[in-house]
Amino acid sequence: MDIIRIIVAILLPPLGVFLQVGLGKHFWINVLLTLLGYIPGIIHAIWVIAKY
Description:
Its main location: membrane. It is built from 4 helices and no strands.
């Protein structure tokens, strides 16, 4: 299941984080990072998926 979340995180980072942790602080941080730059959003999403 983590492989699917990582693929989703590469395509749409906030969705990958949402699938892992829900609507918490990590989701909103990821939305902000994705708006500021797509690559930081991907990096954060993969980090969240790997950690939790």
